[in-house]
Amino acid sequence: MKITRTGLAIAAVAAASALVLSGCAANEGGTTPSNLSGSIAGVGSSAQGAAQEAWVAAFQTSNPDATITYDPAGSGAGVTAFVDGGAMFAGSDSPLTDEQLAGSLAACVPGTAPFEVADYISPIAVVYNVDGVTALNLDAATIANIFAGKITTWNDPAIVALNPDAKLPATAITAVHRGDESGTTKNFTDYLSKAAPEAWTFKADKVFPAAITGGEAADKTSGMADTVTGGVGTIGYIDFSKAGKLGVANIKVGDKFVAPTAEGAAAAYANAKPLDGRDPKTSMAVSVDRTSTDSTTYPLILVSYLIGCQQYADPANVELLKGYLGYVVSAAGQTVSAGVGAAPLTAENTKTAEAIIAAIK
Predict the structure, then answer these.
(1) Does pLDDT of 117 surpass 60?
(2) How sure is the predictor about 31, in pLDDT bands with cuts at 50, 70 and 90?
(3) How many Cα atoms are found within 13 Å in the side-chain-facing hemisphere of 198?
(4) How many angstroms separate the CA atoms of 171 and 207, rounded?
(5) How far is CA 190 from CA 45, 109, 140, 352, 356, in A?
(6) Quick one: angle between helices 347-358 and 331-338, nearest 10?
(7) For residues 342 and 346, what is the distance between their CA atoms, to the nearest angstrom?
(8) Same CATH topology for 5-120+304-358 and 123-265?
(9) What per-residue confidence (pLDDT) applies to 113?
(10) Which CATH superfamily is domain 123-265 in?
(11) How many CA atoms does the CB half-sphere of 281 hold within 13 Å?
């Protein structure tokens, strides 16, 4: 039986409810904290939107006096909302920039740095909608040339060479990219710039290169999925949890073509290095090895973070925030996000995340 990503999202919400019913005394042993009240709002990554929906459902079931809202407006919108004080926390598929770290943060006590806690590790799927094509292999250079507008038809020799047994049509390629500021775009362009530097000459950025003309833009993960689904000869990049019934390409890693999986994402994250200049006591930001030749890894991943203040200027609802974020990174919370295809944090990662969250004031 084929299980779609939509089905997995529904299963994750069901799993969340089951976990709540199994016990809710404290955030230990895989249970959810209870008896918390207040209201907190987060804004950010649409990639972790399905996971946030499931996390909120579980948490509010055991904390009926608490209100948690999460707007999956995109990583860029989330970081902006947090920096400006419009959200208590952000979800972002890329770490804060050095400039953001050095700037003022409206919700935080002046002089205190923010925290960056990894909570959602997921493959980015290269999805396509091409009549008659049920399997597709692509390498980094070919993906780069497609999105740079240099490969324009599906029967281009570069694609044919990677897929000798496929019946590739002469259909024009419509490359769909994020039109909003997106952490998924930052990770996608980081992969292309490192894995195919000769083909992709642009820097990694949350904004898709304006110099590239053609293609089509869509906002948020859901908009990308809808645009690729509704088009003809389309290709795009989205969080694997939203791939649905779209075709999903295998990408070349070493001498093999690898499909996106939670296991491959976890292996890629395990090989990632701490980001230079970050304090490990407050930041879990990493730099992913996009050029790995180890075919047990899937290097086109995103690591999504929870971002907030180490010390809030207004302490109201801090305990609720700590309870909710602590649940998200707990074994119970990570079991829920695994239900939508994410790679759960390791026990060591969870321990680090919980220590950072416990220190929030």
Answers:
(1) yes
(2) low
(3) 2
(4) 27
(5) 17, 33, 11, 26, 27
(6) 120
(7) 12
(8) yes
(9) 87
(10) Periplasmic binding protein-like II (3.40.190.10)
(11) 4
pLDDT: which is higher, 102 or 12: 102
Residue ranges covered by each domain of the chain: 5-120+304-358, 123-265
**41-57 pLDDT, tens per residue?**
999 999 899 999 999 99
Structure token digits, residue 348: 């060591």
By percentage, how much of the chain surpasses pLDDT 90? 82
The three-state DSSP-derived secondary structure of 269-296 is: HHCCEECCCCCCCCECCEECCCCCCCCC
Cα separation of 330 and 196, whole Å?
Answer: 36
- Cα separation of 265 and 298, whole Å? 5
Counting residues of the chain whose pLDDT is more than 70, the rounded percentage is: 91
pLDDT tens for each residue of 231-264: 999 999 999 988 999 999 999 999 999 999 999 9
Q: Secondary structure of the chain in the HEC alphabet?
A: CCCCHHHHHHHHHHHHHHHHHCCCCCCCCCCCCCCCCEEEEEEECCCCHHHHHHHHHHHHHHCCCEEEEEECCCHHHHHHHHHHCCCCEEEECCCCCHHHHHCCCCCECCCCCEEEEEEEEEEEEEEEECCCCCCCEECHHHHHHHHCCCCCECCCHHHHHHCCCCCCCCCECEEEEECCCCHHHHHHHHHHHHHCCCCCCCCCCCCCCCCCCCCEEECHHHHHHHHHHHCCCEEEEEEHHHCCCCEECEEEECCEEECCCHHHHHHHHHCCEECCCCCCCCECCEECCCCCCCCCCCCCEEEEEEEEECCECCCCCHHHHHHHHHHHHCHHHHHHHHCCCCECCCHHHHHHHHHHHHCCC
Domain 5-120+304-358 matching CATH 3.30.465.10: the answer reads: no
